[in-house]
Amino acid sequence: MLSLSPRQLATQVLNFALVLSTAFMLWKGLSIASNSPSPIVVVLSGSMEPAFARGDLLFLWNRGLDTQIGEVVVYNVKGKDIPIVHRVVRRFGGGSTPLRLLTKGDNNAADDTELYARGQDFLNRKEDVIGSVVGFVPFVGYVTILLSEYPWLKQAMLGLMGVMVVLQRE
Known about the structure:
Its EC number is 3.4.21.89. By secondary structure, this protein is of the alpha+beta class. The protein has a domain at 38-149: Umud Fragment, subunit A (Ribbon), CATH 2.10.109.10. The protein is built from four helices and seven strands, in the order αββββββαβαα. Strands 1-2-7-3-4-5-6 form a seven-stranded antiparallel beta sheet.
């Protein structure tokens, strides 16, 4: 039977806390560097196929606010917490007036006006858009999708990680 001294157990717990805090700091550092509250997102639907498939991991940049037609942006809809990844199909304003955008999924027949908040006909670039896509890694985000669709899997992984922390030897 495996037995750990209180000192070994404390060391393992602190190592686990170090890993979690390092991941959090990296996330916050990326958020600051990219000027985006969510610098990495996962594609959750097939609305952007063939450009991006479900499960693709997207990297966002929000420093250049002069978004062009054809650029893929990620935006939040007021009152909903799931970001949407779609392409800009029309621009309004810019310069001295606020830049407003109309978006559409590549695999969708209609533009996104039905997805926007009630009474909203376009996106405000500064308020609604959280970033433009600058890179992606195919299918890596499927882990996130599986964890959100199957809550028991998340609990099993957390339990497994806890057991590994306790059983790991230095």
